[in-house]
Design a protein that fits this description.
This protein has 142 residues and is α+β, with helices and mostly antiparallel strands. The chain has six helices and five strands. Helix 3 runs antiparallel to helix 4 (83-91). The model has no long low-confidence stretch (mean pLDDT 87).
């Protein structure tokens, strides 16, 4: 089975988010899974207590969890996007998310979580299932 050391948790109901997740899957060692997936919910609950509805990127090598604008910045960096794009997206994360949700008709507003956190012990234990489900999801889409 393929191995992911990084997994993006994204809003699977948002067409823009789904397209971004598909593009990110090209980054070696990084997978993506929809927020509503059981393993995503388990991982988020283990990390945050209650699963926040937000863009989340978890990296098992770094033992870090990026959320909100910091997840967007980190993903841009890993995708090799220019610093300008990374900064514009990070600095304007909320307004861009609002605009995308309005245009696409996606329901719900992201929770206002932002930052980079050490991966909690319970989340480390849940990461393998998260990565395995992301890998299986990618294989189904191929």
């Amino acid at each position: 089975m393929g191995e992911y050391h990084g997994v993006l948790v994204y809003d699977g109901e948002c067409p823009f988010c789904s397209a971004a997740a598909t593009a990110l899957r090209r980054v070696q060692g990084v997978g993506a899974i929809a927020w509503g997936d059981d393993s995503a919910q388990s991982f988020l609950a283990a990390q945050f207590g209650e699963p926040p509805f937000a863009l989340v990127f978890a990296d098992s090598r770094e033992q870090r969890v990026y959320i909100g604008r910091e997840a967007a910045r980190e993903l841009c960096e890993r995708a090799g996007l220019p610093v300008l794009i990374r900064d514009v997206l990070g600095d304007n994360y909320e307004s861009i998310a609002d605009a995308v949700r309005t245009v696409t008709g996606a329901e719900g507003d992201p929770d206002p979580y932002h930052g980079a956190y050490p991966m909690a012990d319970e989340a480390r234990e849940a990461f393998d299932d998260l990565a395995a489900d992301a890998w299986h999801t990618a294989k189904v889409r191929e």
